Amino acid sequence: MLEDFAVKVIQTAGARIHVRQGGGGPPLLLLHGYPQTHVMWHKIAPALAKDFTVTAADLRGYGDSSKPPGGDGHAAYSFREMAQDQIEVMASLGYERFFVVGHDRGARVAHRMILDHPDCVDKAVLLDIAPTLAMYEKTDMAFAAGYYHWFFLIQPFDLPERMIGGDPEFYLRRKLERGAKIDGAFTPEAMQEYIRCFNDPHTIHATCEDYRAAVDIDLEHDRADLDRTISVPLHILWGEKGLVGKQFDPLAEWRKVAANVSGRSLPCGHYLAEELPAETTAEIFAFLQN
User: Fold this and answer.
1) Is residue 222 among the annotated active site residues?
2) In this structure, is residue 73 part of a structural domain?
3) The one catalytic residue among 104, 128, 216, 222
4) Exposed end of the chain (fewer CB within 10 Å): N or C?
5) φ, ψ of residue 207 in degrees (nearest 5)
6) Which stretch of DSSP H or E encloses residue 185?
7) Helix (H) or strand (E) holding 161
8) In what order do the strands lie in the sheet with 27-31?
9) How many domains does the chain have?
């Protein structure tokens, strides 16, 4: 997968980030979600590379990127630190400004990137999320049941690590299959790559630290920015059959924090880029090239 994309490993101030890069044209950064890797873009990155220089990165703690200690308040896995990684990655590749497309955790990293580094991002596409603070503050029984992992993974070390570590492949497959609403969304090759990376106990721990940071230092950062309005144009896509679309009004939530918001739902679940790659690609092209 992504055989035509060059492998690069870039050292940032806090982590070693593994990326695949290909194509030509304006720079475009792709950021994956939990519990996946940059491979989640394998169905759409080649098409995007026809018009963009595409960089698909593994977030710190995920895939083949490094897994630094979380530290106090799990701060090393805050969205601020993850966003800083990607700013440094793109700068090391020669890009001071770029487009970004993020899914799930990657979209939350992109959100923080836009707040902390607005001059670096020209436009952003966020897949299947509402703002983190809004989602936590509006949690009800249906959301907690559907997004149980948000509350399971934040439990103190090492309860979730031990439970997931008992059978990582079972957990990962169940997690992915539960969120997808279109059969066959995950190719065998992609699934095996997700399993390879998730079988590492360091990955399991690091990804728990990601979620622990989300209810600690990340919410502090979000509350500190409540009075700020995002000026970077956003395009929001979500799966109409997924929980985000059923529990929230994504456009309304993003318009509370951003001045320029467009978007719509697609007839799928959580994993848009793998469930409906052609439709997702068309939306990205239309927004970024307009």
Assistant:
1) no
2) yes
3) 104
4) C
5) -70, -30
6) none
7) helix 159-165
8) 6-11, 16-23, 53-57, 27-31, 98-103, 121-127, 234-239, 261-266
9) 1
CA distance 195 to 36: 9
Annotation says 42 is catalytic: no
Each residue's pLDDT tens digit, 39-60: 999 999 999 999 999 999 999 9
Tokens 């020669």: give the residue.
94
Q: Is the distance from CB of 108 to CB of 219 less than 8 angstroms? A: no
- Distances in Å between the alpha carbon of 19 and those of 58, 138, 159, 251, 259? 6, 35, 31, 31, 31
Q: Is residue 1 part of a domain?
A: no
Separation of alpha carbons 263 and 238, rounded Å: 8
Return the half-sphere exposure (C-beta side, CA atoms, 13 A cut-off) of residue 80: 15
Rounded distance between C-alpha atoms, residue 154 and residue 136, angstroms = 13
pLDDT digits (tens, 9 = 90+) for 158-217: 999 999 999 999 999 999 999 999 999 999 999 999 999 999 999 999 999 999 999 999
Cα separation, 238 vs 247, whole angstroms = 12
Return the structure tokens found at 276: 């409906």
Q: Exposed/middle/buried for 188, CB within 10 Å: 0-12, 13-18, 19+?
A: exposed
Domain enclosing residue 49, as ranges: 6-288
The answer to whether the beta carbons of residues 117 and 261 sit under 8 Å apart is no
Q: Decide: 198 and 175 in contact? Cβ < 8 Å.
A: no
Buried b (16+ CB within 10 A) or exposed e, 22-31: bbeeebbbbb
Locate tokens 């990655």: which residue?
Answer: 89
Q: Is residue 158 part of a domain?
A: yes
